[in-house]
Amino acid sequence: MQKLIIRGGEKVGGEISVQGAKNSALPLLAGCLLAKGESVLYNCPELSDVFAACRILNCLGCKCKFRDNTVSVDSDVLNSSEVPDGLMREMRSSIVFLGAVLGRMGKCRLSFPGGCELGPRPIDMHLSALRQMGVRITEEHGALDCSCPKGLKGAKINLSFPSVGATENIMLAAALAEGETVIYNAAREPEICDLAGYLNSCGARIKGAGSSTVSIEGVSELHGCEYTVMPDRIAAATLMAAAAATGGELSLLNVRCDDVQSVIPVFEQMGCGVFCCRDRIYISCTKKLRAVKTIRTMPYPGFPTDAQALVMAALTKAEGTSVIVENIFENRYRHVDELVRMGADIKTEGKVAVIRGVKELYGALVRASDLRGGAALAVAALGANGETVLENVKFIDRGYESLEKQLCSIGANVKRIL
Ligand code: UD1
């Protein structure tokens, strides 16, 4: 089991380029299945989840090559419509392949996705939408058998919640369906716009991405294209939290200010200075941190659930009491007990966490149990006195390109041991 050894107390500083977005790269890779011929994705982060997506593509018959943050996918000839169980279990977002495989092959067999560390993560909205589009789905022994005897048909789909994954799955299935699909109450996350941008560059006809109503006029064929994955807004929030936790100053490059618009005011309330200019964010956190007004996680453009644990890690040392309400996932406070081991004063009840700022955190033996919670422990450790041993780094590797190298490049003292 790999561990990070983090010696706290160093202020982070300097310039750092933010990695490409994991949550965009995964649906884009699924999209590559739909587009005949070769697609090339630039700025693709090198992450275990992205490698798992490439293995899924290879299993289906694509030729997927990765080099220097550029991935090329040749999906000219597909020879399977079955996603192996082992790969489905590796990550929950593998469900996004369902819409793409159906769009291209007219059938798909896969098992229920894994990666459910945030509590129950059902896929009922994905399945109901696909059924409305003419997909016949049978579920047995944990496997889903899907086919479209009469082809995929456009449909008007009302989502009961703006699910990111369901919106992406429907867009993928609809791109090659017959007729028009309209998604009402669609997710508005920037990653949805990135997927629409890629698919439209391949010849799809998608309108309204980024708003609550997305319409997709099905086309008969898509062709490969070259596309650049958007910057990772959660990786950006992680670095901002590291600056806050250590009293440091950072210039973030390759970031889009608009994408982090709901996170910036929280750092400003903490007492950090934040300056944005197109693809750069400068954050200076040299003053004592202060508690903030209640943070409520919401679908975009609200405060992102993925940044909740990271901001909490910085708030553990802020003067006063802060409150967080987690509205998106049921089980997203698993980092709290570990932060408490480091000296934090946090109480949770249901969706609510109350964080009373303490003067100091101290290094401890802690364990990641999910991606962002794990990164939050690293952030807290950077601002703690002494050494933290952070176990279960595999969770962090799902979403960060070598977090220890990134942090060392801005002056932190972190090493990985095998
Ligand atoms: C995506 C992101 C994840 C982020 C989340 C919310 C990727 C790869 N992952 O996950 O990092 O935290 O958006 O911004 O992009 N739900 C249902 N039924 C469904 C689908 C979802 O009940 O069929 C529920 C979920 O359990 C959850 C909520 O809806 O409570 C939000 O889920 P969703 O937006 O679908 O998140 P993901 O796409 O899984």
Brief characterization of the structure:
The chain is α/β, with parallel strands linked by helices and 418 residues long. The chain has helices at 22-34, 48-60, 85-90, 96-105, 124-132, 164-175, 190-201, 233-246, 264-270, 308-315, 336-341, 371-382, 393-397, 403-409, and strands at 3-7, 13-17, 35-36, 38-42, 63-67, 70-74, 107-111, 136-140, 143-147, 156-158, 180-184, 205-207, 213-217, 222-223, 226-228, 249-253, 273-277, 280-284, 295-296, 321-325, 345-349, 352-356, 365-367, 387-391, 413-417.
Could you explain how this protein is built, in words?
This protein is of the alpha/beta class and 418 residues long. The protein folds into two domains: 3-19 and 231-417, Alpha-beta prism (UDP-n-acetylglucosamine1-carboxyvinyl-transferase, Chain), CATH 3.65.10; 22-228, UDP-n-acetylglucosamine1-carboxyvinyl-transferase, Chain (Alpha-beta prism). It is built from 14 helices and 25 strands. It has helices at residues 22-34, 48-60, 85-90, 96-105, 124-132, 164-175, 190-201, 233-246, 264-270, 308-315, 336-341, 371-382, 393-397, 403-409, and strands at residues 3-7, 13-17, 35-36, 38-42, 63-67, 70-74, 107-111, 136-140, 143-147, 156-158, 180-184, 205-207, 213-217, 222-223, 226-228, 249-253, 273-277, 280-284, 295-296, 321-325, 345-349, 352-356, 365-367, 387-391, 413-417. The strands form seven sheets. Strands 23-24-1-25 form a four-stranded mixed sheet. The N and C termini lie close together (6 Å). The model has no long low-confidence stretch (mean pLDDT 95). Bound molecules: uridine-diphosphate-N-acetylglucosamine. Residues 23, 26, 92-93, 121-126, 161, 163-166, 187, 191, 305-306, 328-329 line the site of uridine-diphosphate-N-acetylglucosamine (UD1).
